[in-house]
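Table S2 (continued). Query chain:
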Amino acid sequence: MIERTGVDLGLTTLLNRAKQEIARLKQQADENGMANALLEADLYESKQEVIRLSYIAEKQGDELIREKELVNSLRDQLTEVPRPIDEWGEDYGDVLWWKFPIEEPPYCGTPLDADWPDYHTHWTPINMPVLKED
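Corresponding output:
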């Protein structure tokens, strides 16, 4: 049997301590690696949520644009096609009144006005200007 000297025991102790430190550092690296992996997974999930929400917002924006186009189209149709006097009601308020064939500018008002000419047969709503939002 080989006798160990004090130097051998010191080296063995240092070697054991180094092995323990390496094991501790490996464990810490594993734990940090797991934490990093969890953070990366959270980041990936967050990115996916942002992409999903962006897609939904874009889709809703497209639907909103289509709805605005439909409303504008319907409004244009309503203002382009003259309606007979029977379809007018007080709720419509002032409108443009026409006599056909068109030989003069329209009368603006209602049949309830004191100066109503009483010969107009059709009307169109007054198209209110819409300011574009920048």
